[in-house]
Amino acid sequence: MQRSVFKILTQSQWHDARVNGRFDGSRDDIRDGFIHLSTAKQVRATVVRHFSGESDLVMLAIDPARLGADLCWEPSRGGDLFPHLYGSLQLCDATDSFLLPIGPDGAHEFPGNIP
Predict the structure, then answer these.
(1) What's the pTM?
(2) CA separation for the pair 53, 47 (Å, rounded)
(3) In the sheet that 81-85 helps form, which strands lie side by side, from edge to edge?
(4) Phi and psi (nearest 5°) for 61?
(5) Which region holds residue 57: left if phi is over 0, alpha if psi is between -120 and 50, else beta?
(6) What is the dotted CATH code of the domain comprising 5-99?
(7) Going residue by residue through the chain (115 aa), what tens digit of pLDDT does each one get?
(8) Are 63 and 93 in contact (CB under 8 A)?
(9) Helices of type H across 1-98
Protein backbone atom coordinates (compact mmCIF):
# COMPACT_ATOMS: atom_id res chain seq x y z
CA MET A 1 0.00 0.00 0.00
CA GLN A 2 1.10 3.51 -0.82
CA ARG A 3 2.37 5.42 2.24
CA SER A 4 1.09 8.83 1.15
CA VAL A 5 -0.36 10.51 -1.89
CA PHE A 6 0.03 14.23 -2.50
CA LYS A 7 -2.04 17.19 -3.65
CA ILE A 8 -0.56 20.50 -4.77
CA LEU A 9 -2.56 23.60 -3.86
CA THR A 10 -1.99 27.32 -4.02
CA GLN A 11 -1.85 29.04 -0.65
CA SER A 12 -5.23 30.64 -1.45
CA GLN A 13 -6.78 27.22 -2.12
CA TRP A 14 -5.17 25.90 1.08
CA HIS A 15 -6.65 28.80 3.06
CA ASP A 16 -10.13 28.18 1.64
CA ALA A 17 -9.84 24.43 2.32
CA ARG A 18 -8.92 25.08 5.96
CA VAL A 19 -11.91 27.41 6.35
CA ASN A 20 -14.28 24.83 4.78
CA GLY A 21 -12.68 21.68 6.23
CA ARG A 22 -12.43 20.21 2.75
CA PHE A 23 -11.03 20.82 -0.73
CA ASP A 24 -13.51 20.40 -3.56
CA GLY A 25 -10.93 20.69 -6.34
CA SER A 26 -9.13 23.16 -8.56
CA ARG A 27 -10.57 24.29 -11.89
CA ASP A 28 -8.72 21.43 -13.59
CA ASP A 29 -10.01 18.92 -11.01
CA ILE A 30 -13.59 20.09 -11.44
CA ARG A 31 -13.27 20.04 -15.24
CA ASP A 32 -11.92 16.46 -15.15
CA GLY A 33 -14.44 15.20 -12.57
CA PHE A 34 -11.89 14.12 -9.95
CA ILE A 35 -9.15 15.54 -7.75
CA HIS A 36 -5.72 14.90 -9.25
CA LEU A 37 -3.26 13.40 -6.76
CA SER A 38 0.32 12.15 -7.17
CA THR A 39 2.54 9.57 -5.55
CA ALA A 40 5.90 10.51 -4.03
CA LYS A 41 7.61 9.44 -7.26
CA GLN A 42 5.21 11.49 -9.42
CA VAL A 43 4.80 14.72 -7.47
CA ARG A 44 7.98 16.47 -8.62
CA ALA A 45 7.08 15.95 -12.29
CA THR A 46 3.53 17.14 -11.54
CA VAL A 47 4.86 20.39 -10.06
CA VAL A 48 7.26 20.96 -12.97
CA ARG A 49 4.56 20.24 -15.55
CA HIS A 50 1.64 22.15 -14.02
CA PHE A 51 3.03 24.62 -11.45
CA SER A 52 6.45 25.71 -12.73
CA GLY A 53 7.41 29.15 -11.44
CA GLU A 54 4.46 29.43 -9.02
CA SER A 55 5.81 30.66 -5.71
CA ASP A 56 2.77 30.13 -3.48
CA LEU A 57 2.45 26.33 -3.42
CA VAL A 58 1.48 24.00 -0.60
CA MET A 59 1.81 20.22 -0.82
CA LEU A 60 -0.58 18.10 1.23
CA ALA A 61 0.38 14.58 2.26
CA ILE A 62 -2.70 12.36 2.39
CA ASP A 63 -3.21 8.91 3.84
CA PRO A 64 -4.70 6.93 0.93
CA ALA A 65 -6.30 4.42 3.31
CA ARG A 66 -8.56 7.21 4.60
CA LEU A 67 -9.94 7.92 1.12
CA GLY A 68 -11.70 4.59 0.76
CA ALA A 69 -13.55 3.68 -2.41
CA ASP A 70 -13.40 7.29 -3.68
CA LEU A 71 -9.70 6.76 -4.53
CA CYS A 72 -9.08 5.16 -7.93
CA TRP A 73 -5.77 4.38 -9.61
CA GLU A 74 -5.98 5.22 -13.28
CA PRO A 75 -3.48 5.41 -16.15
CA SER A 76 -2.27 8.87 -17.12
CA ARG A 77 1.11 10.29 -18.26
CA GLY A 78 3.11 7.57 -19.93
CA GLY A 79 0.69 4.90 -18.72
CA ASP A 80 1.66 5.40 -15.04
CA LEU A 81 -1.15 4.80 -12.58
CA PHE A 82 -2.11 8.04 -10.85
CA PRO A 83 -4.34 8.37 -7.79
CA HIS A 84 -7.60 10.17 -8.56
CA LEU A 85 -10.09 11.13 -5.85
CA TYR A 86 -13.75 11.06 -6.88
CA GLY A 87 -15.17 13.32 -4.21
CA SER A 88 -14.04 16.11 -1.91
CA LEU A 89 -10.78 15.87 -0.02
CA GLN A 90 -11.61 16.09 3.68
CA LEU A 91 -8.81 17.88 5.51
CA CYS A 92 -8.88 15.26 8.26
CA ASP A 93 -7.45 12.88 5.61
CA ALA A 94 -4.35 15.06 5.18
CA THR A 95 -1.53 14.01 7.47
CA ASP A 96 0.83 16.92 6.80
CA SER A 97 1.33 20.07 4.74
CA PHE A 98 4.51 21.56 3.32
CA LEU A 99 5.33 24.87 1.68
CA LEU A 100 7.15 24.41 -1.64
CA PRO A 101 9.39 27.44 -1.96
CA ILE A 102 11.35 28.12 -5.12
CA GLY A 103 15.06 27.59 -4.54
CA PRO A 104 18.00 29.56 -5.92
CA ASP A 105 18.11 27.26 -8.97
CA GLY A 106 14.51 28.17 -9.87
CA ALA A 107 13.13 24.74 -8.93
CA HIS A 108 10.71 24.05 -6.11
CA GLU A 109 12.25 22.70 -2.91
CA PHE A 110 10.63 19.54 -1.57
CA PRO A 111 10.84 17.90 1.86
CA GLY A 112 13.64 15.34 2.18
CA ASN A 113 11.34 12.29 2.00
CA ILE A 114 10.30 13.04 -1.61
CA PRO A 115 12.60 11.33 -4.13
Answers:
(1) 0.93
(2) 9
(3) 35-36, 81-85, 71-75
(4) -95, 130
(5) beta
(6) 3.20.170.20
(7) 468 999 999 999 999 999 999 999 999 999 999 999 999 999 999 999 999 999 999 999 999 999 999 999 999 878 889 999 999 999 999 999 999 999 999 999 998 878 6
(8) yes
(9) 11-20, 27-32, 43-51
